[in-house]
Design a protein that fits this description.
The complex is a heterodimer of chains A (115) and B (113).
Chain A lengths: L2 E3 L4 E5 L4 E3 L2 E3 L5 E8 L6 E7 L7 E2 L2 E6 L4 E6 L8 E9 L6 E3 L3 E6 L1
Parallel strand pairs in A: 2-12
Antiparallel strand pairs in A: 1-4, 3-9, 5-6, 5-10, 7-8, 8-9, 10-11, 10-12
Chain B lengths: L4 E3 L2 E4 L5 E6 L6 E8 L3 E9 L2 E4 L8 E7 L2 E6 L8 E8 L7 E2 L3 E5 L1
Parallel strand pairs in B: 2-11
Antiparallel strand pairs in B: 1-3, 3-8, 4-5, 4-9, 5-6, 7-8, 9-10, 9-11
The chains are: A mainly beta (115), B mainly beta (113).
């Protein structure tokens, strides 16, 4: 079964700094999809960025980028020039492309951006 | 599209009572997920439907939990009887195809006293 691990329960940085959130996963599949979701205090789950495992190029969305290391099964999220509005829970998720095609989430990292 | 719609937003019930949570997925989405979010366990996948058929219910905690999807536009998650440890936020999510992201509803905050 696929598992997703986020080893940092909480992180805190100053506004405008760069922060990296860690995520590792375990799978025997060769093709799959990885996601980062943001959950602000409003509770709404918002997609931040998406990566297909067959693509070697790391995905980027404005200030958000990922470091995808397929061999190491690592998928970290980098937030550049952090803003107060980035304060939220961040969840890493694994999407299977085979079998039951489940979408499994990590435990989450609570990120606080301080003024 | 209005997005994934869940009801109610909040539910407070007494231990032993039956609780039914409802979800309307985005039209045209073939997959539907029910998740439970707690501080201790994060986001747990409870059950997953594809084309209205339950594909994986291995995350359903025990027989007190059941889920149905009678048609493509409606799903329910029922807890009977409810217990205080069931208190959590329950999310419904849908997606059009397996290689896309899931879209989440606003969640139902359940409190069992």
């Amino acid at each position: 079964a696929q598992t997703v691990t986020q080893s940092q329960p909480e992180m805190s940085v100053q506004e405008a700094e760069t922060v990296t959130l860690s995520c590792t996963y375990d799978t025997s599949e060769s093709n799959y999809y990885l996601f980062w979701y943001k959950q602000p205090p409003s509770r709404q789950m918002i997609l931040v960025i998406r990566q297909e495992a067959y693509k070697q190029q790391n995905a980027t969305e404005n200030r958000f980028s990922v470091n995808f290391q397929k061999a190491a099964k690592s998928f970290s999220l980098k937030i550049s020039d952090s803003q107060l509005g980035d304060t939220a829970m961040y969840f890493c998720a694994f999407g299977s492309d085979q079998g039951a095609q489940k979408l499994v989430f990590g435990q989450g990292t609570r990120l606080t951006i301080n003024p | 599209d209005a997005g994934v719609i869940q009801s109610p937003r909040h539910e407070v019930t007494e231990m032993g009572q039956e609780v039914t949570l409802r979800c309307k997925p985005i039209s045209g989405h073939n997959s539907l997920f029910w998740y439970r979010q707690t501080m201790m366990r994060g986001l747990e996948l409870l059950i997953y439907f594809n084309n209205n058929v339950p594909i994986d219910d291995s995350g359903m905690p025990e027989d007190r939990f059941s889920a149905k999807m009678p048609n493509a536009s409606f799903s329910t998650l029922k807890i009977q009887p409810s217990e205080p440890r069931d208190s959590a936020v329950y999310f419904c999510a849908s997606r059009p195809t397996p290689n896309t992201e899931a879209f989440f509803g606003q969640g139902t905050r359940l409190t069992v006293v």
